[in-house]
Prior knowledge:
The complex is a heterodimer of chains A (311) and B (427).
Chain A: H1 15-33, E1 46-51, H2 57-68, E2 72-77, H3 86-98, E3 103-108, H4 113-118, E4 125-131, H5 137-148, E5 158-162, H6 169-181, E6 184-188, E7 204-206, H7 209-212, E8 218-221, H8 226-229, H9 238-245, H10 249-255, E9 260-262, H11 275-278, H12 285-304
Parallel strand pairs in A: 1-2, 1-3, 3-4, 5-6, 5-8, 6-7, 8-9
Chain B: E1 2-14, E2 19-28, E3 31-36, E4 41-47, E5 52-55, E6 57-62, H1 75-84, E7 87-92, H2 103-116, E8 120-123, H3 139-144, E9 150-151, H4 160-172, E10 176-179, H5 184-187, E11 192-193, H6 196-201, E12 205-206, H7 209-225, E13 228-231, H8 237-248, E14 253-257, H9 259-263, H10 285-297, E15 302-303, H11 312-315, H12 332-341, H13 347-353, H14 356-362, E16 377-387, E17 406-416, E18 419-423
Parallel strand pairs in B: 1-4, 1-5, 6-7, 7-8, 9-10, 10-13, 11-12, 13-14, 14-15
Antiparallel strand pairs in B: 1-2, 2-3, 5-16, 16-17, 17-18
Amino acid sequence: xxxxxxxxxxxxxxxxxxxxxxxxxxxxxxxxxxxxxxxxxxxxxxxxxxxxxxxxxxxxxxxxxxxxxxxxxxxxxxxxxxxxxxxxxxxxxxxxxxxxxxxxxxxxxxxxxxxxxxxxxxxxxxxxxxxxxxxxxxxxxxxxxxxxxxxxxxxxxxxxxxxxxxxxxxxxxxxxxxxxxxxxxxxxxxxxxxxxxxxxxxxxxxxxxxxxxxxxxxxxxxxxxxxxxxxxxxxxxxxxxxxxxxxxxxxxxxxxxxxxxxxxxxxxxxxxxxxxxxxxxxxxxxxxxxxxxxxxxxxxxxxxxxxxxxx
Amino acid sequence: xxxxxxxxxxxxxxxxxxxxxxxxxxxxxxxxxxxxxxxxxxxxxxxxxxxxxxxxxxxxxxxxxxxxxxxxxxxxxxxxxxxxxxxxxxxxxxxxxxxxxxxxxxxxxxxxxxxxxxxxxxxxxxxxxxxxxxxxxxxxxxxxxxxxxxxxxxxxxxxxxxxxxxxxxxxxxxxxxxxxxxxxxxxxxxxxxxxxxxxxxxxxxxxxxxxxxxxxxxxxxxxxxxxxxxxxxxxxxxxxxxxxxxxxxxxxxxxxxxxxxxxxxxxxxxxxxxxxxxxxxxxxxxxxxxxxxxxxxxxxxxxxxxxxxxxxxxxxxxxxxxxxxxxxxxxxxxxxxxxxxxxxxxxxxxxxxxxxxxxxxxxxxxxxxxxxxxxxxxxxxxxxxxxxxxxxxxxxxxxxxxxxxxxxxxxxxxxxxxxxxxxxxxx
Lengths: 311, 427
């Protein structure tokens, strides 16, 4: 397998690497369920979580992942406004890299931030925890690990992805992963929330949610960023959005009783997803959260491992 | 006969006078004294054997950043970059600080460029005060101060009512309006062309309709007013078609293309390349080919660089934050020579787009080898190869998408008013 030094996105991974990370994540699930949640894998390693965007779930997930593998983990929440200028972003990155961490986990609202920083950070490995509307690779690995618990293989499965595709890094990373792993994606949104030429990823594009549901093995609801959607005329109202694109029990029945429901969180109940679905047996949403820790342990282990020659 | 400078053995191309032959060109008192077979004594001689001798290039669209942003470029560094690229006359856009929206700034720029003495600098005056699209500038006063056309470049004249008035007023005195055609309601927040590339990179795109719709609107207003309307840096297939139709109709509509728009596509931005970010953005292959066709059939009469130097700090940030623009003065000629190598244009037609055509549009006494005119001359080797290195660019701006690329075609000498202001290997 090609070694993984940085994890910028799914775009940089091949089938073998994705399988490896998901399988490694699978092997870490048990550690998280034990009463003594600690393994020595990353003892002596330093991980810095550098988050320029608000995040509870992803940051906590990376923090626990590092700590449960015995790494020293530092969290930094930088306000985006103070670091919007590139030079201070690069300076912040270089400053932290000078302290010799093994891994820098970065979330930023600007697409391409990891690629930009990589040129300045020497040997420090970079993990993309979400950059703008570009990529969010660990979320996709999380989803694949979650689905692996139910499905033997991703090959030929149909996942229907619903919501604000335009601003979704989760959608883009999934569209890339689908091609690599052999599953099919249907994307569902009004045209106001679909980016240009989205079909070139090889996905099926629907404006009508109900038409997309039959034959879906999983329905993946994206968070509606309600604060900006009505301002820029992308949707007329939350009410109408929920009516057209909200997942409720009636809609889920169009897909099938075995259809899985996923959501990267945080959920807006009553907007993109109704509580009767979110809390149903079909929902694997909390399972995703659990597997997120395991997969991030796998990512950190893969990036830090194998360089022990200098110890 | 005794002359001050003789250029011998070169292929002299003067599109305005339909000259394209190997002959001598001689200069006396800073003016062109003759083209043909020289028989006499010269104080100095340049052997241009195997090289092309043409009128000094004119770049009607540059940003010199002075006054106001001298850390990006100034009149001196911009002039040095210009002559290194064979340009002896350039028109600087008014988005300086303060803007070129009153006569004093125009005079100051001309005075400073005369002190530098390398390249003729002709200001483009603002159409609206403070470039805010509301009140017209004193165009007659600005013209008396040396402005050769009017534009709010960088910003479109977005308000249709103001644009109508600007076209009516300017055409009352036969001034030209140059429009940065961009409907910003459509392009808001965008940083590259909207399409497959912007979708993959997860950045907001600028749809091509932003350019096309404003050109379409402006052509309607140009039809009503009869104004001289010039589309700056045309980048889209739709835009080229609109201008072609307007010209066929007999309207006073002209346009220019920048080398990057006929040499590169949006693919250049992949990998978040900030040095391929400019406005209007690099577009698709279909757009690129449409611009080439527009150059070929004469719809696009002018090649101009939109030279837009920026400091590293303004570029080294994410694609969506980086400043718009690339430098172009030093690469204009070799990049454009591809049009000759690819049999799109004859050498004379290409040179016309960088000399006599912009001079005609701007009513300049330049861009020709007419006897008695100022001896602004460019001598270049169309075959000579060199590699672009951002560190050795003469411009203060290092923001070029051609860093590391090989160029074919190199300026050997640039002569302004009979004085050699640039020779290859020396600045």
